[in-house]
Amino acid sequence: MISICIIGAGNVATHLYKAFTQSNQLQVKQWYNRDLSKISTYKNEVAITNTLDDLVEADVYLMAISDDAIKQVSSNLPFENRLVVHTSGSAGIHDLDKKLRRGVFYPLQTFSKGVDMDFKQVPICIETIDKQDIDILKTITEAIGSKWYRINTEQRQTLHLSAVFVNNFTNQLYRIAHEISDAKSIDFDILKPLIMETAKKVQTVSPYMAQTGPAVRHDKKTIKRHLKQLENSKHKDIYELLTASIKNTHGR
Amino acid sequence: MISICIIGAGNVATHLYKAFTQSNQLQVKQWYNRDLSKISTYKNEVAITNTLDDLVEADVYLMAISDDAIKQVSSNLPFENRLVVHTSGSAGIHDLDKKLRRGVFYPLQTFSKGVDMDFKQVPICIETIDKQDIDILKTITEAIGSKWYRINTEQRQTLHLSAVFVNNFTNQLYRIAHEISDAKSIDFDILKPLIMETAKKVQTVSPYMAQTGPAVRHDKKTIKRHLKQLENSKHKDIYELLTASIKNTHGR
């Protein structure tokens, strides 16, 4: 049984708390948050505190807090030489105070408030300073059904950047399609199966091989007509830049 | 029982042929293609021909051919007043010769060669010149398990454009993420669950509501660091343009 104290009460902390408590290999010993009201709903299932000095002994302290707070909170921890991990995609492992055994436990996924996450669909990027600390992080990921990947800080920061492309930017393309189709009174539902299929395709085929459409076909006529159809000049810019990017990737 | 002749042998024609033959409400009477060798594998299950003049009588003629060929092939059909539909997202309904009863049967989906498509996941956009022809197209879509949407030519062309955003451009963002992560020896598999979840989220939540990340949070520090991380100036341009687009959408 691995005992864990959770520090923080945001989206990631809450999803991990729920996943941890569902595993019989893990025990959440305590939950810390500066503002107790955010975790008070859980006070009958777990010990809660808003005082770092009251933190009990545990195998792992998991800090799911904002990047900017990692340095200070870790240096304020009232102990040394215990394993403390943060969950950030962009903060370095060395942002944690060096009095501690340090590690990273970064779930690469988008979490929705109020919607339970199946952790089988959450890859966890793990990193530790001390080699012997890696196994406990592997055990935790396996206990919640996740796959682990050993990823160093530079790689993790690259993943964080890549995630902006496949998540935030992709979502913005969905948004633009929503705007364009709304303007012609078209139900956005019609596009949803295509959105799913596009994501599904690259689960088994590389994005390079999966590419279709006017840009890769070098279909000038369609590209010209699409640009004419676009009424918003910002949408036009995005169309042109991504069309050029596709052409560049596919050597035209 | 609705009888259908298929004209063309590309991806869409082949997927529709398979779906039609699986329904007991539909009968594919004949399959035409200029180049017989492309459909000769099917000659034991369906009558095939490479001669338009040999086309037999059927309730519907479905032309799944390139946009440029629609005008000419439809004018070369050796009959009048029969229902002929094309499957193009961008060609107008009037591209079909006016001697015919004209319609459109546009499946809004990306088809992979060799991978069977579940037509439940394929919305069909239908349009006819004559009101009384619409019901037969509805019946065909329902027979293959698809949902139909009545969509006029302008709307269909807008959907075709929107599809470029949610399919081709999205896929190019996946490709860029693949390039960026490959350069740091990161397994692209780590990003696949996030890709799926991003697509899944907008099935129930609007893209506007689903947005997260540094641009919508106005997190200048992270944006600056990401731009510094990007080594390829074209990737930088895309990062900047889509970040500005998100900020613009969310009123920053």
Automatic annotation (TrEMBL), chains A, B:
InterPro entries: 6-PGluconate_DH-like_C_sf, DUF2520, NAD(P)-bd_dom_sf, P5C_Rdtase_cat_N, TM1727-like_C_sf. Residues 122-245 form the DUF2520 domain. SUPFAM superfamilies: 6-phosphogluconate dehydrogenase C-terminal domain-like, NAD(P)-binding Rossmann-fold domains. Residues 4-86 form the Pyrroline-5-carboxylate reductase catalytic N-terminal domain. Pfam families: DUF2520 (PF10728), F420_oxidored (PF03807). This is DUF2520 domain-containing protein. It comes from Mangrovimonas spongiae.
